[in-house]
Amino acid sequence: MTAEYTLEAQPTSTTSLGGVWTGRSKYIIGAICVALAAIMLAPLVVTVLASFKTTVGQAALPPTYFPHELSLDSYAKLWNYQDGLPRYLFNSAATALLAIAFSLGLTIPAGYALARFPIAGKEYYFVFLLLALIIPYQALITPIFFMFASLKLTNTLVGLAIVHTAIQIPFSIYIMRNSFEAVPKELEEAAVIDGCSSWQVLIRIYLPAIRPAIVTVALFAFVMSWNEFLAALVIMNRGVTFTLPLVLAAARQETSIGGTDWGLLQAGITISIIPCILFYLLLQKYYVSGFLSGAVK
Amino acid sequence: MNSMQRARIIGLFYLAPAVIFVAIFTAYPLLQMVWMSFHNWSIIEPARWIGAANYVRAWTDNQFWVSLGFTLKYTIYITPILMVFGYLIALLVTENTLLRKFTRGVVFVPVVIGLSVSSLLWYWLFSYHYGLVNRLLLDIGIVDKPIVWFGEDADRALWAVIISIVWKVVGFGMLLFVAAIQAIPQEINEATMVDGATYWQRVRRITLPLTARTVLLVTLFSVIGSLLAFDQFFLMTAGQPFNQTASSVFWLYLNSFPYLKLGYGATLSLILAVIILVCTVAQMWLTRRTHA
Questions:
Q1: Considering only CB atoms, which chain A residues are within 8 Å of B102?
Q2: Quick one: fold of A84-295?
Q3: Which domains does chain B show, CATH number per domain?
Q4: Shortest CA distance from B36: residue in chain A
Q5: ipTM
Q6: pLDDT per residue as tens digits for the range A7-40
Q7: Where are the domains of chain A?
Q8: Size of interface A-B (CB pairs under 8 A)
Q9: pTM for this predicted structure
C-alpha cells in the first residue's frame, strides 16, 4: 500500500474512477455525498446541541431534536458531579500524558537501537516487542490486574498509563523503527566523524529527523489512552481515580432515581470528544498515515 | 574491545528498557494467565492447583457458550455490513474533488472518538423515552409506538449495537479501501475505459480484484475487533436480557472482576486468545504477502 492518501488537496489522479460521471449522475453522486456526510455528522451534532438544553428542555417528552433555548445547566451539573469534572479531566489528561511519555521514552531508544545498532538476534527482539499484537490485552487484563494488585499499581494513574503504553507498544515500535531506518546513514556518519557520541547523535541528528514519528506515536498514545475503557474499568475502582469514560459509564448506570441524567451524559460526551476532534482537525495527516501504516504492520 | 562490540553493547542498552517493559507487562502476564488457568484462584484465598477443571467448567458453562455464540453472531452480522458499506463509500469518495474529500473527512470523524463515548452517545439515541431514534421513527411513521431497543429482546439490542458500531468504524475500512483504490495504476483504468466497459463492470473486473488483499485485511480487522467487543455491550445492552447480549470479553470480565474468579477468568481469556491468535496469524500471513 504505497498510495499517497491525504484528505487534503491532491492534484494527481483526479480521474481514478471518475471521468464517466457527467451530467445528471454527477449531481446524484454529489447529493449522495452530502446525504452521507449529514448522516455521519447528525448523531454528533444532536448530542452536542442536546448538551446545551435547559433542565426543563431535557425533560420534554417527546424529546426535541434541537434545544429551544441554550443553557449550561448540564455542564454545571457535570462540573460538580461526584468528585467533580476537573478531577476526572485531570485523571484522563495525566494518564494520557504519562502514556505518551512512557511510549516515547521506551520506543525512541528502542527504534534507534533496532535501526542503527548491530545487535545479535535483533529480529527476535523486534518480534518480542510486537508480542502484544498476537495476544489481545482484553485477554491479559485478568493477570495484569492480579499483578497490579500485588505491585500496588491499581487505582494509580501510573498503573493505568503503563497498561495503555503496553497496548500501544507494537504500533509505537513499528513506527519508530521504520522512521529511524528512513533517515540517511550519511547524516550520522558525518556526526560520528565530528566526534559525537551515540547519545549526541540521537539527540542532534535523529530526533529532528524523526519528528513526524514522534507526533504520530504521541497522538495515537493520547487518543488511545483518553478513550480506553476496559483497562480503566478494571484498574481503577475508586471514584476519585476515575477517568472521563469511567465516570460517564457510572453516570449511565445511575438508574436508581429518575433514571439516567441524559443532559449530564451529553455534556460529558461533548467534553470527551473535543480533544479527539481537535487533534483530528489539526493532525489529520498524522492520523491518516498512522492508520495506514498501523494497519499493514 | 573493538568498536563493533562497543556498538553492540550500546545498542542493547538502548533496546533494554522496551524489552524489559514488554517482558514485565505483556510476556509475564501471558505466562501467568496460563498458570492461573490451572488454578482455583481468587484474591482472597490462596491459589489451588485444580488441573484442567477450569477448562471442563468452561465446556459445561452454559453462559460461556451463550456468550461465544452471541459474539460470533455479532461478528458474522457486522463484518459483511462493514465491508460492503466501507467499500461502497470508498468508491463514492475515491476521486479527489473537494466535496468527496470533505465527505471522506466526515465519514472518518467517528473513528477518532472513543468507542465508550460513542456507545454512550448511541445508548442515549436508542433510549426508550428520550432517544431521538424512536422520535424519528415515530415522526416518519415507521412505528406507531416507541421501540424498546435494550433489555427486552437480544436481537433488537444486537441491531442497535450494530448500527452504532457501523457508524463508529465504517470510516476505517473506507480509509484503507480508498488508499488501495488510489494505488491502482492509472493506465489500467484508462485501458478499460477505452474498452467501453461500464462503471460497475470496471469495479467488478478491475477494482475489486486489485484491492482484494485489502478487503481481506480489513475483514480480518473487523473479525478480530468484533470478537473482542466489550465497551458497546457493557455500556449499551449491559448484557440484558439475562446475559444474552454479554459478549465473550464481557463474560470473562464478569468472572474475573465482579465475581473475582480469577482462575476461571484466566481460562476464558486463554480460550479467547487462542481464537484470536488464529485470526492474527492469518492477518500477518496476509500482510507479509501484500508487501512481497
A1: 33, 37
A2: MetI-like fold (1.10.3720)
A3: 38-291 (1.10.3720.10)
A4: A143
A5: 0.90
A6: 444 444 444 444 555 677 888 889 999 999 999 9
A7: 23-77, 84-295
A8: 332
A9: 0.90
